[in-house]
Amino acid sequence: xxxxxxxxxxxxxxxxxxxxxxxxxxxxxxxxxxxxxxxxxxxxxxxxxxxxxxxxxxxxxxxxxxxxxxxxxxxxxxxxxxxxxxxxxxxxxxxxxxxxxxxxxxxxxxxxxxxxxxxxxxxxxxxxxxxxxxxxxxxxxxxxxxxxxxxxxxxxxxxxxxxxxxxxxxxxxxxxxxxxxxxxxxxxxxxxxxxxxxxxxxxxxxxxxxxxxxxxxxxxxxxxxxxxxxxxxxxxxxxxxxxxxxxxxxxxx
Amino acid sequence: xxxxxxxxxxxxxxxxxxxxxxxxxxxxxxxxxxxxxxxxxxxxxxxxxxxxxxxxxxxxxxxxxxxxxxxxxxxxxxxxxxxxxxxxxxxxxxxxxxxxxxxxxxxxxxxxxxxxxxxxxxxxxxxxxxxxxxxxxxxxxxxxxxxxxxxxxxxxxxxxxxxxxxxxxxxxxxxxxxxxxxxxxxxxxxxxxxxxxxxxxxxxxxxxxxxxxxxxxxxxxxxxxxxxxxxxxxxxxxxxxxxxxxxxxxxxx
Lengths: 253, 253
What we know:
The structure is a homodimer.
Chain A: E1 2-6, H1 10-21, E2 25-30, H2 34-44, E3 47-49, E4 61-64, H3 71-77, E5 84-87, E6 102-108, E7 125-128, H4 132-145, E8 149-151, H5 154-184, H6 193-202, H7 215-218, H8 221-230, H9 235-251
Parallel strand pairs in A: 1-2, 1-4, 2-3, 4-5, 5-6, 7-8
Antiparallel strand pairs in A: 6-7
């Protein structure tokens, strides 16, 4: 299978490497930035390309892994190509690729960093296509890469992306705020790391609603008042404390 | 070392087992509830006790692991005992034990569930005592149980406990809300679990502020507006979305 990777960011890097590892032949890596194109191309034994006119138009698979607002522009450049063209975006509908002959979505639900290795076989791959034939083609490719392949339509994918913002980006911000409280008291973030790991591990075989602990779920108003008093100089943190405590109480009422 | 455990909840259960595993002799387990006292006592080969008058007053160590608002009452019952008496609470000052001869704090910073095994050696133990002699005694006991022992004063411990609410209880609530969004769209929580694990693992060797991703840190107003629109029927979730997005922007401004 000849593959062309459009993009050189975190998603592109991990997708291209996973495809390479599954036995695919990475023909080209496109990036507007020549250094980025070269760097990823070298990693997967492909040719770096910065000009859309230089893209080989006879590959089997084109993976679009660029910023959401650039997908439409890339799709226009790939018009007329017969190979399968997929985008990898959680927040973008299938229909953005409607002008292409064979197209679909292959969305890996994970947070990627270039420097962190990750077991791609455990990443949920969410696939969608305009018809069953295309869906079967994408499914067979997705199965080469991961043990978790889900059929997810565009509306579901948007909600999934939103849920991921809560469970990843917002969670990370709570880690940030926890660390700000520690720093203010000359305490090391190392103190919180085992707790953070255990909090995530606890819900790997349970639903989070069943394992909630802490003052809000206990209705321990005394401790909550003490905490709010400690946050006197940080009204922004006090607001988050109140809002999330209220949410916990609502969930368990 | 002869130990008496006051309490039979999650913290008491894990502490008593860790002490037992380190070679201590668990003499008695006290709980108001006889079934709970018996169940933990059996686990660690101790005598179950429900009456304070039946507590052996010549043990080396008394571990108070009861609800915060019961610590003062327990301390009053233990008055006159010469052995070392520690409480295990994050939110309670050392001074609550001031009427006891030899006392201190041994606070394990972790979220405990009775049914989950946990590597106690990796749990940060935060210790405090009124003088250096007592601190050294508590430190030598803590070192038997864990590789991470920290000297933390009462004010620091209160802030640490507050930071733990952000990094554990509030984080778990975001998992709950993520799952509510999924359920509403007939999607399985299994989809989010790998993302949640990776989000926690990412900050084990990095500070969270350095690994933030998502629409808020990118300033991607279009995606944020789409998300808020999706949350139209859930003003409570929209409020949390706005509040945490604002917090992310503030952190990275």
